[in-house]
Amino acid sequence: MRRLDLSRFSCQQLVELDACTRCGECVASCPVYTPTGRETITPRGKIQTWRDFVQRQHGPGAILGPRPIAGDALAALSDENYSCTLCGRCNTVCPVKINTRALWVNLRAAMVDRGHYPAIMGTLRDTVAARYNISGDPNEARLGWADNLEQPIAGLAQRRRAKVVYFTGCVAAFYPLAYGIPQAFSQILDKAGVDFTCLGGDEWCCGFPLLNAGMGDAVAALVQHNVAAVQAIGARVLVTTCPSCYHTWQHTYRQVYGQPLGFDVRHASEFLLALLAAQRLPLQPLEATITYHDPCDLGRQSALYDEPRRVLQSIPGLELVEMAETRERALCCGGGGDVEMADADLVAAVARRRLQMALDTGARTVVSACQQCKRTLVAAARREKAKVKVLDIAEVVWQAVSSAADR
Amino acid sequence: MDRLAIFWPMIAVATVVFFIGSGWNVAVWLQGAVHGDPRLSPWRKLWLILGDVAGVLFSRRLWLAIKATVRDAILHRRLQQTSLLRWVAHISLLGSLGALFALSLLTGFCQEILHGICGVNHPLVLAIMNKDTPVIALANEILNLVACLGLGLVVYRRWGRREAQLLNAAPDLATLALVATLLVSGYPLESFRLLAENVPPAQAAYSFIGYPLALALRPLGWPWATVHFWAFLFHAAVAAALIAYLPFSKFWHVFASPLVAVANTLQEELPAHTLVVLDDLWREVGR
Known about the structure:
The structure holds two protein chains of two kinds. By secondary structure, chain A is α/β, with parallel strands linked by helices. In chain A, 48% of the residues lie in helices and 8% in strands. Chain A is built from 19 helices and eight strands. Chain A has a four-stranded parallel sheet, with helices on both faces. In chain A, strands 6-5-7-8 form a four-stranded parallel sheet, sandwiched between helices. The longest helix of chain A is centred in the C-terminal third of the chain and has 17 residues, at 344-360. The model of chain A has no long low-confidence stretch (mean pLDDT 93). Chain B is mainly α. Chain B contains 13 helices and no strands. Chain B has helices at 3-29, 42-57, 62-74, 77-82, 84-117, 123-129, 134-160, 170-196, 201-204, 210-217, 224-245, 253-268, 281-285. At the A-B interface, helix 1, helix 2 and helix 14 of A face helix 1, helix 4, helix 12 and helix 13 of B.
């Protein structure tokens, strides 16, 4: 057996393995622990198992040579790690602030190196490599969601020059449950008079699902292509309704590209807030009580908590009530970490818990700012037969704008 | 036989084991990537890390680093926000244990180096060497008491409240057993010393737990010098075992955790990369 290769980890991450005191603060906060009850799936359990492997192979106990790791132990750890939604909630409760999310991703990468990963992740990698999106549909169909817009939008046709590029992301482009988000957001941009376009078939997957799968090596080509496509349009700003795309553009793209992108990257909630501040969006009252679900990649990973709330609070008549666990302590909807591909039942169990928290507020509309959160929560609401609407922030704003236009 | 003739070799062996274990742990750390490159030699990685540390020390981020060290590495703000009971237990036990260790180091340094080797007879050095100096006696007693209270809270959380999140694995219990033995054996040891050295009551009273215990033990009439000799060696052996075991135990986190807490706090506070100020966004993007 090959000795465990630690090169996928940073020096700091190897210190983090030793910094974990196994205090267990992360256990109760782990969204996949509650439905499974397995210690080995928790952040503490995974660190403990991995640290034990590292010690067996590299620690003082390996002075006479690496001690073996039991046959299926690596595969078992890999399974547990691929059941993580990568929500990062464990980081917010860790007394020593271990950067757990990055640790899980690199652990996945180490497992990929040793061939221990769900077969579906290999399919994902092949699909993205061949089709440039996660669904496997022809990439030219990226603007399929625009087909049933009431009025065609000039900005959607791939223009040669524009000040803003709207990066729709794979989920909104290819999964009908999320079509409403790009439809609403593009109409908002058009209504506000924003000089924008979409990349259409030139938009490739941002690479986030591959990064999550521990297959970050396959992302460089996607980064090069997408950056070149946006630069060719001369955009000043790239805006996206997908928090995962946003986080990837903000962080990974800068690292992989190795130099400044030459344009700014914003999430739709920030962009909407700016349009509202510039009084580009006339809003009519919407009488409703809503609750807001913080997407993990927008909140914990990108620290955008106030922007979406300020957008919602600017709509007259809308009452925002908060869930019991919110902002940095918000419970994940279950839709992250590519878990949906590996264990749909686990996602359903996590989503059910989050949906119940939303229902407990008394609100009958759950608003998020993420297409994957919307898909996951809508699916949960259907399964539970809950009388609740799940909307994206762009859809809510468009309701307020379009009702103004109707008058 | 002079008890120190056994004590110092014992501590020396423990210290050597400690440094070998620590070095090994650090060597494992250095197998990871530094500046994104895992292929660099360990020495090159160490050099780059020291460069990063110097970069913080000689920059405006120094203040942030100091704040992070005090707030996150020493005072454990997040732990205090999460669980007050656990924070009190942690601070009491580890804080007092650390302070006791520092006091022991200072005493040893004054006794063996300044006085023993360099021949310094400054009153301050002599006062620190003397265990019956009121401040030293009080400090030892109070710190040990606080550490014992912290230990009591740890025991209470594990076996009283039986908090579900706590694991009672063998390595955890071994560490706890060593710490408990070290702390609890401190008071009888002090009593035996007071009895063996016939310390006058006016001085001995500063050992506010050791002295009453000595008064209670005195009627036994044991050969206190011999009892003290063996009790001292037992206490020292436990301390040496703890020192030697530290790099291989859960206690190693006392070095790793502060490094991680400070490093991650510094990374959290890096400024965001933005080109367009949101207030000016419309000017940038309007048709």
